[in-house]
Amino acid sequence: MGWFRDFVFKLLKIQPAPERRIMIKEPLSFRGNVLKNQIWYRGDPQELSQFFKQAGAGDTDTNRFWAAVPHGKVRKIHSGIVAIVIDRYKDIITADFDGVDFGESEDSHPIADTWEEIAKDCDFAGLMGDAIAGALSSADGAFKISIDAESKYPIVAFYEADSVEFVTKGRKVTAVKFYTPYKVDTKEYRLEEEYGIGYVRYRLFSEDGKQVDMSEVEEIASLKDTTFNGDFMMAVPLVILRSGKWKGRGKALFDSKTDALDALDEVISQWLDAVRMGRVKRYIPEDMVPRDPNTGQLIEANAFDNDFIAVGSMKLEGAQDKIDVSQPQISYEAYVNSYSSFMDLVLQGIMSPATLGIDLKKTDNAEAQREKEKVTLHVRGKIVEALSKALPQLIERIMMVNDLISGPAAGEYEVSVKFGEYASPDFDSTVETVVKAKQGGVMSIEQSVEELYGDTWTREEKDAEVARLKAEQGIVEMDEPAVNLDAEEGDDGNSSDQEKSLEDEPGAGKGAPEAGK
Hints:
Number of strands: 14
Shape: extended
Structural class: alpha+beta
Number of helices: 15
Number of domains: 3
């Protein structure tokens, strides 16, 4: 049988597949993708229609709802969910911002006072909100700190991803380039500002990409390259979500939801079209159609107030012209189910519908709604994590630039920011949880007071409350008894030494009451 097995093995021969080059063409560049995300956030149906009709390259793009060109009149509607979600995250995080800490003592805080003046001058709360919305809607961005002779404090601005380019070495950003367009008569220019470690450089480019002299634009003719004392950049990048397509850049919140958003808008538009087409129809003979009293021409039907269909007059013997009325049936449940399904698909992994006040299931109780909030908490945590790294650097560098305005050198600062809790339980739920933990013996009085009142009470108020609770519960704090470490080794425990020590004490042995006292 061995010869048969060798014969079969010789017949079976597997040839490995050759390596083939597969070429995939990206439909949009990074800046084109940023523009798409920004248009979704702007939410203008006219802009959406124009963009997708011009940007469509393959069958996938041209078959989208926003890229389709119907023969008849179709009203295209955008849900606006992108702007709603991003603005909601902006409001949540800016409301939870608890302030800046410079590590100063409670008695003296000159640095914090200076920062309050700077924050008021640059509207730091509004700047942070614009940065959150800009980074989530476009992809990423960067803060730019500049000096103006007319301003007492540094000027801070946020640039979105389409106006920013990062110069990296490995994973470290070594410089940030900011781009600003200018127009002089019919010519267009682009200003490039490179903010690096210890320097700022300016370049001006024309429409064809050639570098030109700064004097071409009178508004920026006085800008010159400069250096400053300090080992830092006057710019801070902000990347919230990392992109897997473009390394080193960010990712917009709805970057991977284009098809779901397009389908949701199609469902909404078809729903409205069905409602409009489902109105009562009147079939009127042509002889009975209303006419213009001035010209005698037939009045064209209107889809809103006088919707009718003109039909030919009956010419048969005995036939009578009459107006027929009919109304089609609209399957509202199918449209509602489709809307709920696609809305759920759009919000998956981004925000809980409960955060927006949307109840897609109609059967969820309060506990189920709170469980759905975990998606919002996760995304909020990612945003807060990115801000907790970028904002301390931004505030530190703003203070350093402020030092350079008034002096030759920049100081050193230790900055930390704090964000509050989101979707925290109400006071009744907190009391119930703390009481159970206290009765179970797994929480002390001090920790229970801390959990109940948190940052709403000062340390003095918490200490006073702890003392009152211990007094009411009969808990008395006593000093720890001292231990005699000078006792001789080998002491047999006889009471002779103890009796001798008692005799030496004044008043010892002079009566029980005095000794007891």
